[in-house]
Amino acid sequence: GNSVTQMEGPVTLSEEAFLTINCTYTATGYPSLFWYVQYPGEGLQLLLKATKADDKGSNKGFEATYRKETTSFHLEKGSVQVSDSAVYFCALSDAVLTFGGGTRLMVKP
Amino acid sequence: EAQVTQNPRYLITVTGKKLTVTCSQNMNHEYMSWYRQDPGLGLRQIYYSMNVEVTDKGDVPEGYKVSRKEKRNFPLILESPSPNQTSLYFCASSRGDNSPLHFGNGTRLTVT
Lengths: 109, 112
Description:
Order of helices and strands of chain B: EEEEEEEEEEE
Number of strands of chain A: 12
Oligomer: heterodimer
Number of helices of chain A: 0
Largest sheet of chain A: 6 strands, mixed
Radius of gyration of chain B: 13 Å
Helix content of chain A: under 10%
């Protein structure tokens, strides 16, 4: 079956640091890939998505590139802010949506 | 405003007392789903529905029921709650076809 593996957190960074959260997947088909973000006390929100190989999804300064050869969809941001502190979920959709375990990001001033 | 609305936000109950968590979406979405979120376990799917009167089990359906009599509503029913169902529950909806999910704000359930 399909699966998504994310790096375990928490990830703690200082403001303006570079962020990478790793995500790899296994899938039998050609899934769409997503990053969702969950701010404290809220539900998940779509952050970005990519629907085919080599697509780059981007939003709010975050980026992720769909790499079929390495089955990866790593999330990056060049300069994080305190307001980016949240839990980030990688997910794939191939008729059924499969989530990774989530990575908590804490950004300190 | 397009949204998924869950109620209640917080619920404390006792073992064995039937409860229902409601979920409603105003986006005319075909697909709806329930998840539970637990520390260290991420999000696990309980049940989902591809359309009215069509429901299917997710990864952790035991102890839960759902119904989809109308397109907009997808209530989660716990006939006899137990302490291991203490969790944070999320309802979500989408158009289907790998389109992104829209989530409600969650229901924190405590069963004593």
